[in-house]
Amino acid sequence: MRWLLGIVIAVTLLWFGYWFAATTAIRNGVNGFLADQQAGGVQIETRDVSVQGFPYRFDLTLDGLKLQDPVSGAGYEGEKLQVVAMAWKPWHILAALPPDQFVTVAGQEIELTGTEMMASLRARPAMDLPLEEARLGGQEIGVRSSQGWQSGARNLLLALRQAETGPADYALALTAEGVRIDSAFGARLAAVALPDQPPPEMPDEAGPLRANILLHFTAPLDRNYATVQPRFTGLDIGELHLEWGALIVEATGKLAADAQGYAAGEIKLTVTNWDRLPPVLVALGLVKPEVAPTIGNMMKALAGQTGDPALLQLPLKLADGQMSLGPFPLGPAPLLMPRS
Known about the structure:
By secondary structure, this protein is of the alpha+beta class. The chain has five helices and 19 strands. It has a 17-stranded antiparallel beta sheet that branches. It has a two-stranded antiparallel sheet with strand order 11-12. A hairpin with a 2-residue loop joins strand 14 and strand 15 (247-257). The longest helix has 38 residues, at 2-39.
């Protein structure tokens, strides 16, 4: 039995050695990364970086984390960010996000609040650590911008998984309920007055929102991301479903970059109770009030071809660098790839 006891002791010592060595490597790696970013001009502040969880986990905690890129203006601030990985599968990372965070992007500061906000990142155990799944979710999400708009959702789940169709294809799934409509937008919508049409009575919340979309990239998302820089090349919409009161919008279709890099393809849009749509387009600033009645009449005529006067089906077509929604021109199509 001594040999068995010796094996147990040896394995225990090896495990302890592995945990402490990995802990030191994690701490040094994080501090080294922060130092490299500071040397590159990024402004970084953190009160403390600690690693705990002996002997089964690696619990990384960053207190008072602040990031600011003076070039792009992007930034992040969170009181406590906790990142956890089990010691026997460090390629699966879980993160508990602070209940109050601030993100600076596109010239505006966005306050993000919520409960049970979690994120996870799981890679495949291989040399390049290819992404297998990433998830982000939370409850009672609130979003408030310094530019005055605000929104949120009772619950939200966003997931990105590597698809079976190819190593550079990823399935995006989104579900949300209780999506709060910005009060300023709601006021603009209530103020829209179109001839022979009462103001739409739209609720303060929308949902459910569901999306299942297959994304295509030029290369897999893995540890070589910064070097390879995979680019987005197209998508297949399997399902896109949004309900807002009586208004229901659904979409399916495919888009891909053409020879000039512009998005090309067709997406079929189905709108139930389409008569709520013209005032919404006016409130969004996409249509002028004096043009909305004409668009409404055209929608009514198109809906009459479906056999259901409340149902409108329109193709969103993208070709030769331009977009059109049914008979309505929308302007230039988005550029997906650099022009050849």
